[in-house]
TrEMBL record:
Belongs to the TonB-dependent receptor family. Pfam families: Plug, TonB_dep_Rec_b-barrel. It is found in: Cell outer membrane. It is a multi-pass membrane protein. Residues 245-707 form the TonB-dependent receptor-like beta-barrel domain. A motif (TonB C-terminal box) lies at residues 734-751. PANTHER family: OUTER MEMBRANE PROTEIN C, TONB-DEPENDENT OUTER MEMBRANE RECEPTOR. This is TonB-dependent receptor.
């Protein structure tokens, strides 16, 4: 149906994590007990997948300095983060959780829907990033990835984001290449000692003028010292935004509601957290896609146990999520009531992880764990009444698709001296996938339907696909080796090597239709081209070497500079090969293995430039990034490589007042992937102003984004297909323009 719309935290890769424990030793017995308990829970210890991320205790800082054991190349974003990098300032300007990561070293965002950007780390995005929401991965329930993992949690529910780019310890997760993004919702709130009953709440409202976007949110908790009950809910809605030249950018509207309930209990060093919720998206436009989201509903249940024992710590999680997704045309793409082309997806995610940290001695720490992940996928397209091409049967894009992953890891961290620390890790992941027989809209071929069937080869494709075996099993091995040298209290150097492996997703292997319509419905790349799966794909294997040099003052309060160059060689990189055309300049592509390299560097710096009791404190910070990617087999550039870019921020604080001026500069994008007809984009610079004042339980925020109403084209935004289609599909499709000037206002009241 077409639709009209009018208007307490985890520490992945905890390098030298410092945990308070009642007893630190008993190494041999502890190791044996941990392995046996993990095996009993997993039932598959020999191949179980490990993903360490031990919950730190209250009051322990992570990702703050080398002395705290964080990876130098990692980034932390939290509600009380450094300066204006805190989440409170960022939530005001966006309803897209991925956008909270802007300005973090190594992070870029590939364009998608208004609340569904796809993050990339060091040039590798989408499924190549291990994205965890409350410790669990979430598989996209859509052939266009309209509901990626970070869209499953509202920015208002996020309490902390941790980013590990490049050299990622095996304990931070597998089945990925570029790193890990871990997003955590707020932990349960408990009463303080001596407090009988604790209650707290928060109401927030934000408005953004461009697109007339509104967000409302509410939080409430009631607890004693051993039990907690909390609620969090939000609603965001926006119309189409306008570009800097005043033109309305079609299919950028959205509507999303998010509700979650959290129950927690704790006693004697043990804590249990249960969380459940429902998210609904009545609609979300996708300017770079041929379709739009016309309904998306998901429900989830998460459970977590955290325990402190005399032998170490144990962290166990279980998760379940079910997502029902529908695509069709919104009005911007020609949708009319009762018409269109409905497409449906049903996905179930379920799994668990068990992780243990064992301090074997003052020098050595061992981390082990087990993990299992299951995804079940059905993707079908209902027949369209009155259409000869899209009837009379239901088209099965993926039927009874399953993707399971299980494995194990072990990680040894050694503090050889105050100056030298090493980390060695080994991980094994076994991935097995399968799918059932598929079906086209019609089994008639060229003999039965003449020239029309010759233009639509799906019947022959389905027969060929069903004639082959679909089951595939990959045995993947990851290795990480890191060394840190801290020669003085003003410098640190970290260097390492990582071997990371990712198996194809269900669509990359099993999207079978080569017809013009069927292939164009698959693809999350924002280029409006057609994509066809490949049963013979091999897993990607990335070899990364990287070094981080960090310089800072002795107190780590005045200034800091950090440089991270990296080199990645990807064996069997899943790129594409052209197999035909779709007309109007669009092409048909099949996923294929190639070898590729990525070379780049990230630079970040910060300094306190002035401080006075009367005037306040001024801080200057900046982040710059560059990446170059190349397909070694054909010499073409890799798709969606961010050109040289930088973000410079001047912040001011005085009492409850905080303000900032941001300048974002991006160079011209000249190296593009010819195979996908990726558009080039000119360079640009944007200026943003923001300010906020907090007194007592009230906070007020205001700001102006794109102060000078600059018209610019997004280098990773994809093509402006919605406008191209509205213009009669004539000429050449161009790059998607970014949003023009927007005035922002918000208020938060705590009680």
């Amino acid at each position: 149906m077409a639709v009209r719309h009018d208007g307490a935290a985890s520490c992945p890769a905890g390098f030298r994590s410092r945990l308070v424990m009642t007893s630190r030793f008993a190494a041999a017995d502890a190791l044996r007990a941990a392995l046996l308990s993990s095996a009993a829970l997993a039932g598959l210890f020999s191949t179980a997948a490990f993903a360490q991320t031990v919950e730190t205790l209250p009051g322990i800082s992570v990702f703050a300095s080398p002395d705290d054991g964080a990876l130098l190349s990692g980034s932390l974003l939290s509600g009380d983060g450094l300066g204006e990098a805190g989440l409170a300032a960022r939530r005001v300007s966006t309803a897209d959780t991925a956008a909270l990561l802007r300005g973090l070293a190594g992070v870029s965002l590939n364009g998608n829907g208004g609340v569904s950007s796809l993050p990339a780390l060091n040039g590798l995005g989408a499924d190549r990033v291990n994205v965890l929401v409350d410790g669990a991965p979430i598989a996209p329930a859509c052939p266009n990835q309209m509901n990626p993992a970070l869209s499953a949690i509202s920015p208002m529910r996020v309490s902390k984001v941790e980013v590990l780019a490049g050299i990622t310890p095996v304990s931070a997760g597998g089945d990925s290449l570029s790193g890990t993004i871990s997003v955590e919702s707020a932990p349960p709130v408990f009463a303080a000692p001596g407090e009988a009953v604790h209650t707290e709440g928060k109401l927030s409202a934000f408005y953004r003028s461009n697109g007339r976007s509104v967000t409302g949110a509410a939080e409430a908790s009631v607890a004693n010292d051993g039990f907690s009950l909390g609620y969090s809910g939000s609603w965001s809605r926006a119309e189409n935004y306008k570009a800097g030249n005043g033109r309305t950018v079609r299919s950028t509207l959205y509507d999303v509601q998010d509700n979650a309930v959290t129950v927690g209990a704790r006693r004697d060093g043990h804590k249990v957290t249960l969380q459940g919720g429902i998210q609904t998206m009545p609609y979300q436009g996708f300017p770079t896609q041929r379709m739009d989201l016309t309904d998306n509903r998901s429900a989830f249940l998460n459970g977590r146990y955290e325990g402190i024992f005399d032998w170490g710590t144990l962290d166990a999680r279980a998760n379940w999520r079910r997502t029902r997704h529908t695509m069709n045309f919104l009005e911007d793409k020609g949708g009319t009531a009762g018409g269109g082309m409905p497409m449906d997806t049903l996905t179930t995610d379920a799994g668990y992880s068990v992780k243990a940290t064992l301090p074997l001695s003052d020098r050595d720490t061992l981390r082990v764990g087990t993990e299992f992940r299951h995804t079940g996928l059905d993707d079908w397209w209902d027949p369209v009444a009155g259409s000869m091409m899209m009837s009379p049967l239901t088209y099965w894009n993926v039927k009874d698709g399953t993707r399971n992953r299980v494995g194990s890891f072990a990680e040894w961290e050694a503090n050889w001296s105050p100056a030298w620390t090493t980390l060695l890790g080994l991980r094994n992941d076994v991935v097995w996938m399968d799918t059932g027989a598929v079906q086209p809209y019609s089994w008639q071929n060229a003999t039965g339907m003449g020239m029309m069937a010759m233009a639509n080869p799906d019947a022959a494709d389905a027969r060929a696909f069903n004639a082959r075996g679909h089951a595939r099993t990959d045995v993947n091995v990851d290795v990480t080796a890191l060394v840190r040298y801290t020669p003085s209290d003003t410098s640190a150097i970290e260097a390492g090597y990582a071997r990371k492996t990712r198996s194809p997703n269900l669509y990359e292997r099993y999207a079978w239709g080569t017809g013009g319509m069927s292939s164009s419905m698959n693809g999350w790349f924002g280029d409006a081209n057609g994509y066809v799966g490949n049963l013979d794909l091999k897993p990607e294997v990335a070899h990364t070497v990287s070094t981080t040099l960090s310089l800072y003052d002795a107190t780590r309060k005045a200034w800091e500079v950090k440089l991270t160059p990296y080199y990645t060689y990807v064996q069997d990189f899943i790129d594409v090969e052209r197999i035909g055309t779709l007309g109007n300049g669009f092409v048909k592509l099949r996923f294929a293995n190639h070898d590729a390299i990525l070379v780049g560097a990230n630079l970040s710096a910060a300094a306190r430039v002035y401080e006075d009791e009367e005037i306040g404190a001024f801080r200057l910070s900046g982040v710059a990034g560059w990446v170059h990617g190349r397909n070694l087999d054909i010499g073409d550039a890799l798709y969606h490589m961010m050109p040289l870019n930088a973000l410079l921020t001047l912040e001011h604080r005085r009492g409850g007042w905080s303000s900032a001026v941001e300048v974002q500069a991006t160079a011209r994008k000249e190296r593009v992937e010819e195979a996908r007809n990726e558009p080039k984009t000119p360079g640009y610079a944007l200026v943003t102003l923001r300010t906020g004042y907090e007194w007592g339980d009230i906070r007020i925020d205001a700001g102006i984004e794109n102060l000078f109403d600059q018209h610019y084209l997004q280098p990773l935004g994809g093509v402006d297909y919605a406008d191209y289609r509205a213009g009669g599909s004539r000429g050449t499709v161009g790059a998607l323009p970014g949003a023009g000037r927007s005035f922002i206002a918000g208020m938060t009241v705590k009680f």
